[in-house]
């Protein structure tokens, strides 16, 4: 239990709230900020002045000022001067981007995932920093990884992922500190958690407070938002829905258990059911395309995986009662091709009260949802306390 | 997004924080309040004076004042003058209590559940109110029901439960308003949600922010606390873990699905496995006792149900990553008799990262956990805004 905030804490909170508003919604008039944030005009003016002095926003006259009278100044996030690095380390690709405040992608590169994932990301930072104009501020880096990441210290578990995470933090931190006195922080989190964050912040789940994002690749990950906040669990491992056992008579899973959801709906499950070799996203797309063209084996495979997809979604809907379930990664294609099977299972297995308001969706941000989420993760510290983070 | 609070909002927040502190922890010295709440002495003094003027706390000299110098006054919740009604409507019993601020049970009655559950509860209120001293304040009523309750409007779903809930609200509201100008509110919620709230507030899960409470009777309910708050889901139906399907080849469930967790671990499942007739809590206890005495059929039944109990717990541990799982209702006995099977399944099926810090426990508040939770629910409005609720 904690007592209420001090005046200075309130001011910092309000600075963060205002900056978050323009970061998420884009350039906004002072009049709209006054109405939306429930603060008076002079307070908005003072907060904006502080943020402008810190180089985080600019104010300008609206371009198209139709009414008579004094126009309300427009507050715009400084997306060219304030930025973060966002990276994704996925099963089959690496993505690196420099993202400006407001979520604008300034530089972007994507390569097939090599054995060493650290060197290309460090190289990206070095090259990008060399061309960044003077007077800019990097607030940090966020990394989305296909493995379990612990929230409190950002450490990644499973296999060699711990090694990866340490190397990433060291390599990225080193590259960033070359051009600065202190290295902005590097934070690592699970792909599904970050995709959920991105879709909740500026995607299909904007305004939805109870959301499950399912990310499919070789495995299945889940990012859960409950009452508007990431449901991270005790040590940040919440959302390992791929290891919910759905088929007690099923196949052995890499985790040591048997019949995990990902053994029934992961990429390998679809390819096995379709009697195909290959792996990765393209192989999944090929099966879905073949099913659309009338290949009966591919059609049966898609339906089978769709039924198991609906099975697990129904369980999660009963447990979590979400407003929206989002199908991302390779599950996007699988869901779109098997929506009938998914809905049939959901109707049969989920309680009416739990399922009656749930919406099934695909990501607005597409395959870049984890990348945008990594950027949001990097911006978190700035948005929580703008003046402190901007000057450190 | 909302701006920070006003001075008046902070004062109300601080009043609620102080009152909640003594409500949960009992009589507390001003010195401890000053240290724990991070407010200065004069603020604590002013807040306490406001609460005392509203009749919510008293201040007194400590009984055993060993040190020299001026003693720190002890702030004590007014448990005789400020109270709530708490009721549980369980499968086989009704419980009614008048609970004083601070969680002290002042009056209590328990009867086997009759067909009409409303009349006995209304009668309890009438009789109790007739003997309550003048100058007391009833802040509301909380009801724990074995059915799905929606949080936003307190409506109960499934079967005739909606009828029950309306009748409860009308009957209790009517009985309460007889002795007042306005009826204190009646709020209804699921047994498992309220047991979780009680154990989190003043039971085994105090200080744990990620908790799953499992309540067993004929069915299985779950109360989930994530990041310190009830995970209620989009419409308050979160936690319907009893309808997570664990056995696709399993039995038909009353919900229309097949192989739901409650068909494998509910009371009927244990009795069926033990080849016994009967129903209810006592029948479960009889099987567990028989197993302890060496009855091989009962032992096999307990082990079988224990394995399925561990199966579902493992799934929930992977999805939620709780710090603690609490086994309540009839699951208390089942868990205590089959802890080895539960742990074996948990070890085999849950990811090490998700399970390595989880503690398996039984309720500190025993079978009264839902009753204490119902009281906490009734006190919520008072603790959120003490002066407003106390005078309304």
Automatic annotation (TrEMBL), chains A, B:
It holds the Pfam family ROK. It comes from the Bacteria. InterPro entries: ATPase_NBD, ROK, WH-like_DNA-bd_sf, WH_DNA-bd_sf. PANTHER family: BIFUNCTIONAL UDP-N-ACETYLGLUCOSAMINE 2-EPIMERASE_N-ACETYLMANNOSAMINE KINASE, ROK (REPRESSOR, ORF, KINASE) FAMILY. Belongs to the ROK (NagC/XylR) family. This is ROK family transcriptional regulator.
């Amino acid at each position: 239990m904690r007592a209420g905030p001090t005046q200075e804490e309130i001011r910092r909170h309000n600075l963060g709230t205002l900056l978050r508003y323009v970061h998420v919604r884009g350039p906004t008039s002072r009049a709209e900020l006054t109405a939306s944030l429930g603060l008076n005009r002079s307070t908005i003016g003072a907060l904006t002045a502080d943020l402008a002095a810190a180089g985080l926003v600019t104010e300008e006259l609206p371009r198209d000022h139709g009414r008579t009278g004094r126009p309300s100044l427009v507050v715009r996030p400084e997306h060219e001067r304030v930025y973060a690095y966002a990276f994704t380390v996925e099963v089959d690709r690496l993505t690196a981007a420099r993202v400006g405040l407001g979520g604008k992608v300034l530089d972007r590169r994507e390569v097939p995932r090599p054995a060493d994932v650290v060197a290309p990301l460090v190289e990206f930072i070095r090259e990008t920093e060399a061309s960044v104009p003077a007077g800019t501020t990097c607030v940090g880096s966020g990394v989305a990884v296909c493995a379990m990441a612990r929230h409190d210290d950002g450490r990644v578990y499973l296999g060699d992922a711990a090694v990866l995470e340490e190397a990433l933090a060291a390599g990225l931190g080193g590259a960033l500190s070359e051009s600065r006195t202190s290295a902005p922080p590097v934070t690592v989190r699970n792909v599904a958690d970050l995709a959920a964050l991105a879709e909740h912040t500026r995607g299909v789940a904007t305004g939805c407070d109870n959301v499950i994002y399912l990310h499919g690749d070789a495995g299945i990950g889940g990012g859960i938002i409950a009452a508007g906040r990431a449901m991270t669990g005790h040590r940040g491992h919440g959302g390992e829905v791929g290891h919910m056992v759905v088929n007690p008579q099923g196949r052995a899973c890499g985790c040591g258990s048997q019949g995990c959801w990902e053994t029934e709906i992961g990429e390998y499950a679809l390819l096995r059911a379709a009697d195909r070799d290959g792996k990765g996203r393209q192989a999944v797309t090929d099966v879905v395309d073949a099913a659309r063209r009338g290949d009966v084996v591919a059609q049966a495979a898609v339906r089978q995986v769709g039924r198991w997809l609906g099975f697990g979604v129904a369980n999660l809907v009963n447990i979590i009662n979400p407003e929206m379930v989002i199908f991302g990664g390779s599950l996007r294609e699988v869901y779109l091709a098997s929506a009938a099977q998914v809905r049939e299972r959901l109707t049969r297995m989920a309680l009416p009260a739990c399922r009656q308001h749930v919406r099934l969706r695909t990501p607005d941000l597409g395959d870049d949802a984890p990348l945008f989420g990594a950027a949001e993760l990097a911006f978190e510290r700035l948005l929580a306390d703008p003046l402190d983070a901007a000057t450190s």
